[in-house]
């Protein structure tokens, strides 16, 4: 989930655990939590397509940001590697662990009536709905001359 409150910035994937959610309660009172529901296979495929250039940390995704030449870094020509935790089996295990940890967090915010869930596989299709929600909850920022 991503959360919003007056004194806290929204954050991708936080809180991830019930302990983190309770700690966040001590900092601010949340009034809006967004959960993006993306199919397991979509997440697994996207994360498994990630390859890195170890020396620089440059990240490539074979689906939407591939290197010019398969398997090599665009700038150095050095080989790319797939991190152990980005391999399909490891990704599947990470996603199962995340789902188990996040379930009570989702239930907590649902019980408070502040959870808004959106489902899909593509950012450009989900974002308009998220934007509409946020626009209805967060006042627009006016240029200086209009203050």
Automatic annotation (TrEMBL):
Q: Which InterPro entries does this entry report, sorted A to Z?
A: Adenylat/UMP-CMP_kin, Adenylate_kinase_lid-dom, ADK_active_lid_dom_sf, P-loop_NTPase
- Point out the coiled-coil segments of this chain: none
From the UniProt annotation, give the residues forming the signal peptide: none
Q: Which part of the chain is the Adenylate kinase active site lid domain?
A: 50-85
Q: Which domain of life is it from?
A: Eukaryota
Single GO molecular function: ATP binding
Q: What PANTHER family does the database record attribute to this sequence?
A: NUCLEOTIDE KINASE
Q: What is this protein called?
A: KAD4 kinase
Look up and give the organism this protein is from: Sylvia borin (Garden warbler)
Query: Encoded by which gene?
Result: Ak4
């Amino acid at each position: 989930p991503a959360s919003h409150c007056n004194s806290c910035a929204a954050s991708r994937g936080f809180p991830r655990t019930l302990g983190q959610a309770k700690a966040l309660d001590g900092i601010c009172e949340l009034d809006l939590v967004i959960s993006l529901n993306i199919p397991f296979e979509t997440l697994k495929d996207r994360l498994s397509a990630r390859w890195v250039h170890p020396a620089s940390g440059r990240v490539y995704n074979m689906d939407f940001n591939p290197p010019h030449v398969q398997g090599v870094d665009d700038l150095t020509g050095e080989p790319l590697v797939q991190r152990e935790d980005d391999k399909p089996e490891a990704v599947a295990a990470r996603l199962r662990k995340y789902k188990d940890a996040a379930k009570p967090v989702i239930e907590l915010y649902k019980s408070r009536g502040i959870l808004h869930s959106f489902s899909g596989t593509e950012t450009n299709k989900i974002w308009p709905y998220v934007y509409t929600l946020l626009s209805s909850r967060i006042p627009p920022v006016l240029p200086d001359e209009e203050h």
